[in-house]
Design brief:
By secondary structure, the chain is mainly alpha-helical. The protein folds into two domains: 256 residues, Hypothetical protein af1432 (Orthogonal Bundle); 72 residues, no CATH class. The protein is built from 19 helices and two strands. Strands 1-2 form a two-stranded antiparallel ribbon. Helix 5 packs antiparallel against helix 6, helix 6 packs across helix 9 and helix 6 crosses helix 11. The protein is globular.
Length: 388
Amino acid sequence: MLTKEHMFAIIGMEMLTSMDKKVEKNMSKKNLSKYACSDDNAYRITQEKEDIRPPFFRDIDRIIYSHSYLRYENKTQVFSYIDNDHVTNRMLHVQLVSKAARTIGRALRLNEDLIEAAALAHDLGHVPIGHLGESILNKISIKNNNGYFNHNIHSVRTLMYIENNGKGINLNVQTLDAIMCHNGEMVLGEYYPKNKSLEEFLEEYNSSYKIKDICSTFRPMTLEGCVVRLCDVVAYIGRDIEDAILLGVIKKDDIPKSIVDVLGSTNQEIVNTLILDAINNSLDKPYIKLSKEVFDAIVALKRFNYEHIYMKANDENSIKKYELMFEKLFEKYLSDIRNDNKKSVIYTDYLNDMDASYIENNTDVAIVIDFIAGMTDEYFYKQYQRSI
């Protein structure tokens, strides 16, 4: 006989009886800070019947079972097409963000479920070849009147309009907002949340396609979103150095002593310094803050990384090659749609599984960009090879 305890163990079940409210309460986080986003404040764009899982906990489940989450495994963090299993990929990066953010969140008594959901999903919109691929796809999108392309916005688009065969997976707005506002490329000394309505969230989302660089002005609506934004930097800045040293791009001694003296010389030391500094300067505060000494050091280290690592991750010939690859695939798939070439992979691997509403509500250009943006590095390369 299936006992009540066994029934509770089944993930994805609907609420059974009013007695299950007790179980739901026990699964929720207790003793949250007054600055935390409680489960009671969670809301979805389309309201639905909840189950025994707290709302942000349920978001985590939907994210890790999504198709786009599976594709993290073969997406570039910094270095593309490197034959070394110890070099960071996008999957490891989001896990490192989640771990650092949950550490800070636990110390500050914030909602760890919201933090984990946002951290694990924040880079779902990243395209093949990392930030270089994003830059190339942005140019293609602008040229074809599809607006500006930003990976953080595309993460939200993926979850709202592409996953679940084009119907979306209906995450809570606070989760979507934290993803949209993560922007780890921009380091701040203080991170303040900004209260937003659903309408304001959607207005920011839509404005990103029309106004250049407006994403850099977005602030999360929750303190949990602020933590994820900071921890995007925490997770990548030291790890990228370790990858670069492993690949011989830089030497450990290249890091300026003034930075090492503050942050440490290893990724472990850098992560530890940043997490403890954020906790010590943010306890019982309505913001997330770094000390001036640590903030100045992280800005200097980020500048060092750009000059010595990111600018050298791809040489001029590689950049030209990747530009050609993106442009050729874009033109091919756009032509395939307009010529109704049902044998094309954009149909067999993508559109044939999409809900009719997705096809009806999107232009051919937007559909092609969605398809290319969702590719892994390996799939992208294989499709290019087949097209030449």
